[in-house]
Design brief:
single chain, alpha/beta, Rossmann fold, D-amino Acid Aminotransferase, Chain A, domain 1, eight-stranded mixed sheet, 29 helices, 36 strands, 36% helix
């Protein structure tokens, strides 16, 4: 309920400016004149003061100046003195406008700001704009118009270009923030502020790289859960990635992995900034589709066909009316109207026909979205058609987009549609593309809700056995596992593998093959050979003992000739997998520089690099995520009935993916893995070959050190689940909150007395708003934790049957403060369960979690008249003292 910690930066009430304002013509910083011009030519209604670092007078005189934000546009040599002066003036935030500052100097300024307890935006940034405050603290050009969009950009020049484009296209902003390389307050922090900003409805991001993947994912997930987030990222290809790395000084990473990260965060990605604003316009309608089926209503066949082609190009589906709907609608349409595929109303269509067709398509369950395309016809008024569409809008339950073809003839009609907040586009293709963003947003929001535990519900793996295999390999100073070691690791996680036995002589290989049964495969076993085929170290379909003997000897000769330095353990013998009805796929793990380990799925076999069929997902996975991952790969089309073959056992494929996810979560040393091929058919899956690369220590990608610090999304922490008895009998479970708890949490709040609700929320609200409910249940377990007490309540139905239902009867929560060392807590207990020891147990449990996360202090604000809570705090050893900023509260603190 408090102001955001970056409010002094982005919503200041008082500003002090260091830019040699007394003599701007002598300013040494090239940014100072433009900044001063922007500040003096605006409507900012707060306090604005200009101070020179050369000001004479005593320190006491300077300390009389108080401000929230200090803006510094000085030569680099004068910046440290200005930061010190800002601290003396009680500034909580500083912005340094500059360019060309290297990482060493920037780091020194960051350290100074941290010592002074100040948040620093910059250096190398061009400032920010807050149009609703009338504040243009930037060198980005004129102040933008106030509106619902926020823009955060890692490129100052591109930000200025986007603002210029937006001004010409009547796009308005709540905030514009230009971030530069070596920033202290960076993308994650700006996102966190905008996610909580009531004036921001959608967030646009231009980015080139990230510094801390865990922090980025945590903030992006939180923001995308609250409002649409649209991302334009540079560096989609290798040349662009190199340029982005040079420009932003941030990690770039693989573009496919970045796509996977954005999907999992619930954001939408675009490829150009006019696509960015197109997506923003569409998402601002706030109506979300529940699928990909877009119905096209048109009075011209050609534009409709173009739209249908674009639907196919971007893997949407053409929404078609059911037979019943089409029959009823056909009766009221012109004779030439066609309802096969497109809803082509013909050139004879009137506004009433458009209205009837739109209402029918909206009611049809085979349609998820509506696109109305109007082509000007002689003797018709485009405005009348637009008004007919607008009149339908209040009753529509599905997203509506429009395309009025032409220019001057339809200009007034477009105004009518825009005034009604109906997204309208100039071409059919761009309108279909906008629906694609809507569909992506919906699908990605489903992925956002998934926060699985590190281990699935399948049989528990032998984690200790797997770790012993890894430790033995690392002890030998090796990183690549042999096939035998790789299959041992897979077996420890219950992934089916072909039986594989190592032979150290031709005679031994022949006996093993005879016992296993023909046909068999021989593969070279060497710690120094990663890809056996490169040295002709694989022979398949051997059908006799003599063939095994000869193949063994020939293989040893070839490998020694092609790789004379390689150490050779021998040759593995395994029975050939039955492949007549099987499909070859590949499941693997790659480690990205920015995001750490990623699970990959696609076509397998020897042509894997050429086919380049690979879909990716961030771990941990659950069944829903595994199924979506399979669907994104092109090879998914071959897994059903295909060329006379039976459908494969998809459940078996999902199980392997879940097992690989477990390996990634529990084995932080895992760097690369290829299970290729994994042969699947209607009877299950079996791993024929595997290659695994490890390294000592986890690939830490940010966040605090600890369990799962190698993952960008912290798994659901099931280890905190506990069962406790109630004082008067019965028991309850304490566990971390998850998204499925939203309805139970709402019921808890609704059941509270008005006094209890006021004590918890300092508000008279009777239920949680949807955005607040989503924020309280979809949390990032790295920076906050909420523990719920769940009680199984027995209720009698009307028929006398007794049923059990879960009920949340209490919640304790902490959120890590920006200093990353302390946290702020909250606590609520159902009125019917107060006095039963529940509040004490919830507080002790949440303090244990905070202590384990390395936090050193837990604090909270309690209303002065909340006697019950204050007694509980004292009984738990909290220190209770007055809160200087508000006498209605007491500050309670406890060291951890």
């Amino acid at each position: 309920m408090d102001a955001h910690y970056l409010a002094p930066l982005f919503a200041p009430k008082a500003i002090v400016v260091f830019a040699d304002a007394a003599h701007p013509e002598h300013a040494q910083s090239p940014h100072a004149p433009a900044l001063l011009q922007a500040l003096k030519g605006q409507r900012f209604n707060g306090t604005l003061q200009f101070v020179s670092t050369q000001t004479s007078g005593t320190l006491a005189d300077l300390m009389e100046i108080k401000a929230d934000l200090a803006i510094i546009a000085l030569p680099p040599s004068e910046v440290p003195a200005a930061i010190e002066l800002a601290a003396r003036m009680a500034c909580q935030a500083v912005m340094v406008l500059s360019s060309g500052v290297d990482s060493d100097l920037a780091s020194a300024w960051h350290k100074q700001a941290r010592r002074e307890g100040i948040y620093l935006l910059g250096p190398n940034c061009l400032g920010f704009q807050r149009p609703s405050l009338g504040l243009n603290a930037s060198t980005l050009g004129p102040l933008a118009e106030a509106g619902p969009l926020a823009l955060v950009s890692q490129s100052g020049s591109l930000t200025a270009s986007m603002l210029d484009w937006a001004a010409r296209n009547a796009v308005s902003f709540s905030s514009v923030v230009s971030l530069g390389p070596h920033a202290s307050v960076g993308l994650a922090e700006a996102l966190d502020f905008l996610a909580n900003d009531p004036k921001t409805q959608s967030i646009l991001i231009y980015m080139e790289g990230i510094w801390d993947a865990r922090r980025f994912m945590s903030t992006l997930r939180s923001a995308a859960n609250a409002k649409p987030v649209i991302v334009l990222k540079a560096g989609r290809h290798s040349a662009g990635q190199a340029a982005a790395r040079t420009h932003s000084a941030a990690m770039v990473g693989d573009d496919e992995v970045f796509d996977a990260a954005l999907r999992r965060a619930g954001a939408v990605r675009v490829k150009s900034f006019d696509e960015m604003f197109s997506a923003a316009k569409c998402l601002a309608s706030r109506v979300r589709p529940v699928g990909k089926r877009l119905a096209i209503l048109t009075n011209g066949g050609g534009p409709g066909v173009l739209a249908a082609d674009r639907i196919h190009d971007i893997e949407l589906a053409l929404g078609q009316l059911s037979a019943e709907t089409a029959k009823a609608l056909q009766a009221v349409l012109p004779a030439l109207a066609s309802l096969v595929d497109l809803i082509d109303l013909s050139e004879d269509a009137t506004p009433e026909h458009f209205k009837a067709a739109l209402e029918s398509a909206n009611r049809d369950s085979h349609v998820d979205g509506l696109l109305v395309i109007y082509s000007p016809k002689l003797g018709t008024a485009p405005v009348d058609f637009a008004k007919a569409v607008v009149s339908c809008k209040p009753d529509l339950s599905k997203p509506l987009l429009t395309c009025w073809m032409g220019d001057d003839a339809v200009a007034d009609a477009r105004v009518v549609l825009n005034d009604a907040n109906i997204p309208t586009y100039r071409t059919p293709e761009s309108a279909v593309g906008a629906f694609g963003y809507l569909s992506s947003f919906y699908q990605n929001q489903q992925l956002l809700q998934q926060t699985p535990p590190p281990l699935s519900t399948l049989a528990k793996p032998d984690i200790e056995g797997a770790r012993l295999v890894i430790e033995c390999v690392l002890a030998e100073r090796r990183k690549v596992l042999t096939e035998m070691e790789s299959k041992s690791l897979l077996s420890a996680f219950h992934i089916p593998v072909t039986e594989t036995i190592l032979a150290r002589s031709a005679h031994e290989a022949m006996m093993i093959a005879t016992q296993l049964g023909f046909p068999v495969a021989l593969k070279i076993d060497s710690p120094d050979i990663s890809h056996k085929s490169d040295v002709q170290g694989v022979t398949l379909n051997i059908t006799s003992g003599a063939g095994v003997r000869d193949a063994y000897n020939d293989m040893m000769d070839r490998v020694k000739r092609l790789s004379p330095e390689a150490r050779i353990n021998g040759v593995t013998v395994q029975q050939m997998a039955r492949t007549r009805a099987g499909r070859e796929i590949c499941i693997g793990v790659v480690t990205d520089d920015a995001f750490g380990p990623v699970v990959a799925f696609g076509a397998g076999g020897t042509m894997i690099e050429l086919i380049n069929d690979r879909a990716m997902e961030l771990p941990p996975l659950n069944q829903y995520l595994a199924r979506r991952l399979i669907e994104r790969a092109r090879v998914a089309e071959t897994l059903g009935e295909w060329r006379g073959l039976q459908p494969v056992d998809l459940d078996a494929v999902e199980r392997v993916l879940l097992r690989v996810s477990e390996m990634v979560c529990e084995l932080p040393q895992l760097r690369e893995m290829d299970i290729n091929p994994l042969i699947i058919d209607e009877d299950g899956a079996v791993a024929v070959d595997a290659r695994i690369v490890i390294d000592s220590g986890p690939h830490v990608i940010g966040g605090r050190a600890g369990a799962y610090s190698h993952l960008p999304i912290l798994p659901y922490p099931a280890r905190y689940e506990q069962i406790w008895p109630l004082r008067d009998g019965g028991e309850y479970t304490i566990r971390p909150i998850h998204t499925d708890d939203a309805q139970m949490l709402q019921e808890l709040v609704q059941s509270l007395s008005s006094e209890s609700r006021y004590f918890r929320f300092v508000s008279s609200m009777t239920e949680l708003p949807p955005t607040m409910l989503a924020k309280l249940t979809l949390i990032d377990y790295d920076r906050e934790m909420a523990l719920v007490a769940v009680y199984k309540e027995r209720q009698a139905q009307e028929n006398g049957e007794i049923v059990e239902r879960d009920r949340i009867i209490g919640v304790s929560r902490y959120i890590t403060n920006p200093d990353q060392t302390s946290c702020e807590f909250s606590l609520v207990v159902a009125d019917a369960f107060s006095g039963k020891g529940l509040g004490s147990r919830l507080m002790e449990s949440i303090m244990d979690v905070a202590r384990e996360r390395g936090l050193t202090e837990i604090i909270g604000l309690v209303l002065t008249n909340n006697d019950g809570m204050l007694r509980l705090m004292r009984s738990l050893g909290f220190t209770v003292k007055p809160y200087p900023e508000d006498p209605d509260f007491r500050l309670v603190t406890h060291p951890l």
